[in-house]
Amino acid sequence: MNEDDDLTVDPEDEEPSQVEEEGPEEPGERSDRESVGGFRMSASFSRSLAPNMDDYVARIVAPLQEHVRSMIPDYRAIARELLAPMTQRLQEQVASIVAAVPSFSMPPLDLPALHAPVLNSATQELLKSISEQHAIAMEGLRWALGPLFDPEALRGLNRALLPPNLKDHADEIRASQVHEFVEQEGIPLYLVPRGRTALRLLRAKDLAERRRVLGDCYESLMEDCAAVLEQADHEVVSDELGFALDGLGAMRAGHTRSAQAMFTVTLDTLIYRFYPDRKARGVITNRKRGADVPDEIDEMGVRDAFVWLPIWNAHEEFWKHKGDKVPHYYSRHASVHGVSSRQFSKRNCIQVLMLVASLIGYADRIARESD
């Protein structure tokens, strides 16, 4: 088995392994990779594509954060300033109340209930003053934070967080819905599909309905993916892009099984490009059933999580030697280690094409941003 062959059927067999029957381990677990298309990967693909991020944070993000903080009043300081003159008086009044009312008991914390028979007039005036100052402080807080809760501002924030293909549907799709969907599904929503198809997927009540959408929208999904692949022309993804386009050609000719196999090994190679270190890659490619989202993905930015969550879900564990039944939904491990008509299907072919198109489009955008 040569190096390229071993790479395309990466067993990912950290503890436990997905393919104990695969034979030789994956060779050359290197932190570096030979240059591809003139672009050298030095540690991980994503870091090598954004080498100046620390400088960007220091020059732009940090001053912006400081500017925003300077616009918000220090309400703790305001509260301390307002309450400082009252502290001593309050202590004296409490002492006088306790001395004057032997059977004193505190009523519910409702200012109208704190009437004369319980508190003397001086204490009532003090509490009234505190209430008024609190109201002033809260009004200032509402004024300062008002823009954050303005409906227009919230819509703008939601639109900014949505993937590019869904921004035109910001009034119908929430970024939180997208995140919840890809946290549970192996179907991507970043760059593909078009907005209307994404709406159908998001509104589907279960897996059967979502797979029905993949079948109903097969042709349009294929064209959505083709559009993303044809726009991704950065040299950093040129090799993988060529194989993805070959798979797309086979798919259009009706050879969906061949296409699904091509897309699966292309996805393997792309993941290896991002995560050449085996342990780091295992976080993405070994999804235990019922497992929580790994911290490494949970701590990603919104865009990164949108891309990697469905890929992680598509790598759900599959143990052929333990008698696991081949799933009918797309599974990377079942596609490689459980070839069957149950796994190789038009719906699964379109699903893995979507994963590949989403990841290639993502890599292409990162490369352009670093340029």
Structural class: mainly alpha
Average pLDDT metric = 79
Distance between the termini: 37 Å
Q: What portion of residues belong to β-strands?
A: under 5%
Rg over alpha carbons: 29 Å
Separate helix tally: 17
Spatial shape: elongated
Q: Which strand order do you get reading across the main beta sheet?
A: 1-2
In terms of quaternary structure, the protein is: single chain
Q: Pick out the low-confidence regions.
A: 1-44, 101-117
Number of domains: 2
- Relative helix content: 55-70%
How would you explain this protein's 3D organization?
Helices cover 61% and strands 2% of the residues. The chain is mainly alpha-helical. It folds into 2 domains: 32-50 and 169-370, no CATH class; 72-149. A two-stranded antiparallel ribbon has the order 1-2.
Task: Give the secondary structure arrangement, pairings included.
Blueprint: H1 3-8, E1 33-36, E2 39-41, H2 45-49, H3 53-71, H4 75-100, H5 121-149, H6 151-161, H7 175-184, H8 195-203, H9 207-216, H10 218-231, H11 238-252, H12 256-274, H13 278-285, H14 295-298, H15 302-313, H16 332-337, H17 346-370
Antiparallel strand pairs: 1-2
Helix pairs in contact: 4-5, 7-15, 10-11, 10-17, 11-12, 11-17, 12-17, 15-17
